[in-house]
User: Fold this.
Amino acid sequence: MPQSTFHDSSDKRIASLRQQNKEYNEMYLKWRIDHEDDYGFYFQGSSELTYRSGEGFITKYPEALERSALNGIHSVIARTLILYTMLTIINLLLFSELPITVTRKVFFTGGGFFVGDESLAIILSYVINIIRRVLPMLYLMSKIKMPLKVMFPMKISNKPLFFECIPMAMLTFGIFTILSGVEVYLAGLLGFNAGNAIWLPESKPIMASSALLYCIIIPIISELIHRGIFLHILRQFGDGYALLLTAIISAFTIDNNRALLFTFVNSLVIGYFTMRSGSILTAFVMRIIISSSSYWLTFIKYTWENTGNYLSLSLAVILIYLITGCVSVIIFLRKYSNNINLPLYEMYLTEKEKLMCFFSDPQVLIWLSLSAVALLINISI
Assistant:
């Protein structure tokens, strides 16, 4: 005879839901209940049997329900990542081996840029970079059918923290740029070129278009996927797991394979502030600041390197970022110390169990294998 021996609710363990508005919570709860047979997880305290597609009847214990929902989410995320990685490999193989001839030749460089005829190169850059991100995103959205207001919440529930995200992004960028500089130096001693590369067109309008693509458009699309869809379908399994897995995925899908650690830590910070502020606008702002700063520091390197002022100018920029970030964070903590805390409660499975579930998924293993292939191709061209 079925018994209700549990009085727990999975929502009580998702601390970040308190940072969202009522409409978001109601829509998120409805989606999770409606999709209990595939991607949703909501435990209401029952030990009855429940039916899940592809698995049959399972005991309605929280651990069993959570593991079953995890399998469904991990599989659809893996298929999305496989699609993204395959498009990346096609891009690398096709355009690195064959010059594109329309009216003039355009070549694909090892740094991941089209060069040659500038007008055609910038068009190809936009088309390729947008398609290989938007197609996987649309595929994922079509599978999970989550409300847009849940995937991409706009309302800011913690305004002091939202405004603090700007100096925090500056501080994060400053610290890890210094650490990345050490990494580049050590790699140089071993004979590897670990620095960033950018395409610098001669035409100013095309250069502005290139900066717009890499500093704003790509960061926004990437954040729609990572701190939008991925973060919000995973947070039903706990805030900590959602933050950690989205950061891992971000690091493995970054175009610059030399910035894996940099991307991982930045993703954790951006994800945390996104959850705590309740809005994906926070992710947009932080990612644009970090991407733009990286782009313009690399621009300074390429344009000032031969003048002897490159190092001093770069250090001055980083120092301004560090001082601004540190002072602002200290002031913020003194005024709003209660606004920064976000308890990262676990759900019913431990973080280790959930990560083992993810990395043991056959489709995830296929994605990782394809990512390794893409990395090898990228290194060789």
